[in-house]
Amino acid sequence: MANEVDFAEILITPAATMIREIGASVAAAQQALDQGSIAAQAALRAQAPELEAAGYQVTWYQIPEAQVEMKVAVHFEKKTTDAPLRMYLTPFNAKYRTGLDFAAEGTSTLKLRIVPVPPVTRPE
């Protein structure tokens, strides 16, 4: 049936979970870049120690900033009468639009900007 919706595919999730997952994905991507540079430096050390001794460093890449902007459908829900009101987001995509007959005019925009900050220094 055309109107049956697999809600697992639509990705309805609490806003905090979605934002946390986006942040974790950016962190995982940066870690993968770092691991690649560490491996390349180790390979340089093994294959051309004279270059490393001369101060040669492999290229390190970083994600200085990640910006995310997505159209989302928003709904609020209380699981029980004494539970707090929670905001849930669903990425607005073709499955959501056709499965639930939802108009794009009803979407909101979630904008995130993830930037690195210096580590907190603790007094000694």
Describe the structure.
This protein has 124 residues and is α+β, with helices and mostly antiparallel strands. The protein has one domain. It is 40% helix and 22% strand. It is built from 4 helices and 4 strands; from the N terminus they run H-E-H-H-E-E-H-E. It has helices spanning 7-10, 15-47, 49-53, 94-100; strands spanning 13-14, 66-77, 86-91, 108-114. The mean pLDDT is 80.
Notable traits:
4-stranded antiparallel β-sheet, 4 helices, 22% strand, 124 residues
Summarize, please.
The protein has 124 residues and is α+β, with helices and mostly antiparallel strands. The chain contains four helices and four strands.
Q: Which helices and strands occur, and which strands form pairs?
A:
Layout: H1 7-10, E1 13-14, H2 15-47, H3 49-53, E2 66-77, E3 86-91, H4 94-100, E4 108-114
Antiparallel strand pairs: 1-3, 2-3, 2-4
Integer average pLDDT: 80
Write down the overall geometry. elongated
- Outline the biggest β-sheet: 4 strands, antiparallel
User: End-to-end span in angstroms?
Assistant: 66 Å
Structural Rg = 22 Å
Query: Total domains, how many?
Result: 1
Helix content: 25-40%
Flag low-confidence runs: none
- Give the H and E element order: HEHHEEHE
Number of strands: 4
